[in-house]
Structure of DNA-directed RNA polymerase subunit:
Amino acid sequence: MSVIGSLIFCTDCGNLLRESTGNADAILHCDVCGTRNKDTIPQTTVSESKPSAFPSALRAKRSAVQTLSAADRMTEAIIERDCPDCGRKEMFWTTVQLRSADEGSTVFYRCVCGFKETSNN
């Protein structure tokens, strides 16, 4: 009889035998060839490997990820857009994905005078 982990195979035909009873004196009969196989106590196989044993492009990119502070995320671009409140020709703008991924993002406009406006694109 061959044992791989908790699987027990017939020594004559290689058929998978029924589960072990845990009793070393028990006999397991093969349903295919009829061979009588001695039962064994199931063995648990534990293996460990280092993450470096399996190279991964994703794991390599994870080390290249940068952490952004709140100040880094608050960058705004300038667009030529008239402010409806003060008439200034330039406004700051930024985009955020507030809705689901298959819908457009929300554009936030801000003027130095304090006027704020949003637009869904």
In short: Helices lie at 57-62, 70-73. The two ends are 68 Å apart (CA to CA). The mean pLDDT is 80. The beta strands are 2-4, 7-9, 27-29, 36-38, 77-80, 90-96, 106-110, 116-120.
